[in-house]
Specification:
The protein is an alpha+beta fold. It has 2 domains: 95 residues, Phosphorylase Kinase, domain 1, CATH 3.30.200.20; 222 residues, Aminoglycoside 3'-phosphotransferase, Chain: A, domain 2, CATH 3.90.1200.10. The protein has 12 helices and 10 strands. Strand 4 and strand 5 form a beta hairpin. This is Phosphotransferase enzyme family protein. GO terms for molecular function: ATP binding; kinase activity. Belongs to the methylthioribose kinase family.
């Protein structure tokens, strides 16, 4: 059954019906930055909220659909991670399971997404280290499947449709032969690993940072699932690598962030979740290739930068990059 999507004209009535805003003036604005949800900022003078509702079809050129109840998976994941890392995620204010609507507290004024900082050439290794520590805490606290809410435990369908199919299988279909086979083998290896909670979209655009540090929030948990922790590590390393390709003058800073992130994660994860770095880097390569030729290419890369990113991705997938240190060397040397 289709559900009517909220917009700037209907969201206030929805929130009033649920007792979340007052009868006085309310300001509403659409928040950008995403392709998979309706995201609205709402303020009634008492508190600032964010309202999310999943789109059945993503706002991209290619046909790309996903289950709309992933908003409810996000709600459960936020409650789970808030208990593990208090203050590192926004609070859930309300959820409407019939309309798949999630209401969150909004970040304080002045907070910004980390992607904007990175694209501007500001690479703060302290943020990266904090993210590595937060991610390690999530992963280590959830190795027992009994610790996961049912929607997260069963979140593989949204992950398959929003990550595996567009980022692995669709790219592999474009490169038949050994490279395509390696991409598919990497995806299959990931599918066989059910280790812990996985965020699934651990990207700089989904990190909000305070203007004066050290506070930050991780957001956008709609593809959270029980799976392979390597994916979260690879997702962030991929984005740092792409920023280095795009802004070679700042590559040393991005490489420092990658080192800080990987190091903090390895220290926090402990022996049971010691990263399998060859496996992580193969995923980093697959994701890098996907941001060149997949369903959601990195919008900031020029044609020449896409070629450089493609070469890096091939080397990562084929094992030509030995480990995180080797990757950072590649980034700083612009290869």
């Amino acid at each position: 059954m289709s559900v009517a999507l909220l917009d700037e004209t209907s969201v206030v009535a929805h929130l009033r019906g649920r007792g979340l805003v007052g009868s006085g003036p309310v300001t509403v604005s659409a928040l950008g930055g995403g392709v998979s949800n309706v995201v609205l900022a709402v303020d009634d003078g008492r508190r600032a909220l964010v309202v999310k509702q999943a789109l059945p079809r993503l706002r991209v050129e290619a046909e790309w659909t996903a289950p709309t109840d992933r908003t409810l998976t996000e709600a459960d994941a936020l409650v789970l991670t808030a208990a593990v890392t208090p203050g590192a995620v926004p609070a859930v204010v309300d959820r409407d399971d019939e309309r798949n609507v999630l209401v969150l507290e909004r970040a304080p004024a002045g907070w910004r997404d980390w992607k904007a900082d990175l694209l501007g050439g500001t690479a703060d290794a302290a943020v990266a280290a904090r993210l590595g520590d937060v991610l390690a805490r999530w992963h280590t606290a959830t190795t027992d499947p009994a610790a996961l809410p049912p929607r997260v435990l069963d979140g593989g369908d949204a992950f398959e449709r929003l990550r595996v199919e567009p980022f692995y299988r669709r790219v592999a279909a474009q490169v038949p032969g050994s490279l395509g086979d390696r991409i598919l083998a990497t995806a299959d290896a990931m599918a066989a690993r059910h280790t812990c909670f996985v965020h699934g979209d651990f990207s700089p655009k989904n990190v909000l940072v305070a203007p004066d540090g050290p506070d930050l929030w991780a957001i956008d948990f709609e593809v959270a699932h029980h799976g392979d922790p390597a994916f979260d590590l690879a997702f962030l390393l991929c984005h740092l690598s792409l920023k280095a390709v795009h802004r070679p003058a700042s590559a040393a800073g991005y490489a420092e962030c990658a080192t800080a992130f990987a190091g903090a994660y390895a220290r926090g994860a402990g022996p049971d979740l010691t990263p399998d770095w060859p496996h992580v880097l193969r995923h980093t390569g697959c994701l890098t290739l996907a941001r060149v030729r997949g369903a959601s290419p990195a919008e900031y890369l020029t044609a020449a930068e896409r070629e450089t990113a493609w070469r890096l991705g091939v080397d990562l997938v084929t094992g030509a990059v030995a480990g995180p240190d080797d990757l950072c060397t590649r980034l700083t040397e612009g290869r």
